[in-house]
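Hi team,

Filling in the usual template for the complex we talked about on Friday. All components are listed, including any nucleic acid strands or ligand strings, so the model treats them as one assembly.

SUBMITTER: L.P.
PURPOSE: interface mapping
COMPONENTS: two
RESIDUES: 535
SEQUENCES:
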Amino acid sequence: LDVGTFFRLHSKLGVYAALLFNLRLTLLTVFIFLNQAVGSVSSYMLIFLQCSYVVFVGFGRPHKKPYDFVRSLILEFSLLFILITRYLASYILNSTVEGDSLLFKLLSVTELAAYGLGVVVTLVSLVYHIVKKFKRNKVEPNDNLLEEQSPEKVRKEEKDLVKEGLQEGSPSKRKISDQNASSIVFDIEELDAETSGGKGSTGNSSFKFDSRKQEKKYRRNKFQ
Amino acid sequence: VSSAIKDPTSNTLFIAYSVSPIQPVLLLVNNSNDFLPFVSISNPAATITAATYDPSTGNVNVQVSYNQSIQGQPMDLVFTPPNIPTASLLPAVSNSWTVAPTNHLSAAFYPASTYEQVKKMQPYSSAVLGVYLSLSLVTLFFRKFIGLELATLIQIGYLSLVMNNQLPAYLQSVTTWQYVFGYNYFYLTQQPSAPLESSYSVYGFQRYFGYSCNVMVLAIASVYGLSLLLVCLSAITTKGVSRRLRNGGFILLNEVGFALVTFSTPNIVTAVCVEFQAGTIFDASLFWSKAFLCVGVASIIISNIIGVINA
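RESULT (copied from the run log):
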């Protein structure tokens, strides 16, 4: 196990990524709004909150892929830099440094560069995942044909799937449903499973149909 | 002073003075809209280049150029009545104001070369915004988290500009990112005339939620409504189709709905906070605005509850 996988498995925080992400976003907005009322305290809270989220990304490891992890770190550190810059400008630099000084220029250009870097890594990340997904879809039918697998193995897999899927109200059943839904409607199940690291439609699933044929066979068994 | 906008590309301020009542003043200037001969400024670093009366807003708009930094300095606008018999007993009227542009840009003096650099940054800034919005649209359907992480960086970076009341010239290009929260300029009724007395007026936030956040809330409501419709239809269709419809509904709810809500969360939360600040949160005179607010807040709660269930 690499360090990232170790952290992700043991922290078990990946499944809460969406929730923590939203909570952080809401709190950041509220603290920015409170800045005029409470002054520098809200700046400290903003920086503390963002630092906490960076720690969560670093040690909770909600991202499975190393590239996603690096992209997320770049974006979160950029935001942390911007929040620190705002604090410095509002409470220290505005009163001590002239508006047209080189320091202001440097900070502003760095901030603009951070936005640009964020856009570039996001764009590259998106293209990377889409290309990877496209390639996998192209290769999969030949690699995972049901006929090419041993009959015993297939039978055992199906048995497990039926056992898991037919448990009324179990999370596994929901996963099956969401998994199928993803492939039917938008075909995005794998994409989100990789990023969110959670369960259900936004997370990773405990099993995956290797091919349409396998899925159909499972359904036939289920309803027989 | 109802507003003072620092021009991002020159050492110029556009100050709007709300004069009330304006009729006696208009009588004195013979109903002319040109006030330039009658107004002056006490600050030696500043010069009035234009002063006109705008009948549509009732404001006297004064354009001031400066050759030194005037940020934080007092500025007295003096109205000297014309030398006519009817104005012989009228004293000069003045208004005192400390220079602090309402669009958060610093009224510092910059050489022309700096403004040239600022102008060069504008296309870069527009490109960043354009690519960000395009990416957000694509990632709404594919890999939502990638887009949402970028959205957080850009939206919070933009919103946090309000913390700094003296933005340097080099960040002026960022202040033009008014579409950072998507498109929100669909008003069902005319905007209230009273301006919002808050720093957030820079971003176009208004006293009522419906003027600050509308199209995106409608989009969220549409996605949720469509997913509900699909789930309802799944109950009255055949087994195979029913399953697809139900799953399609859940996907819309979990994926597109979640991404849209998270994308709009900073805008919704800020608009609600602004309503609290303006004291219009319990004002139900604009029913549609309150309906939008309820939908916006409910969508955040629902999407998070779904997140908890999924976890």
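MY TAKE: Residues 239-278 of chain B form the longest helix (40 residues). Chain B touches chain A through 74 residues (CB under 8 Å).

Thanks, L.
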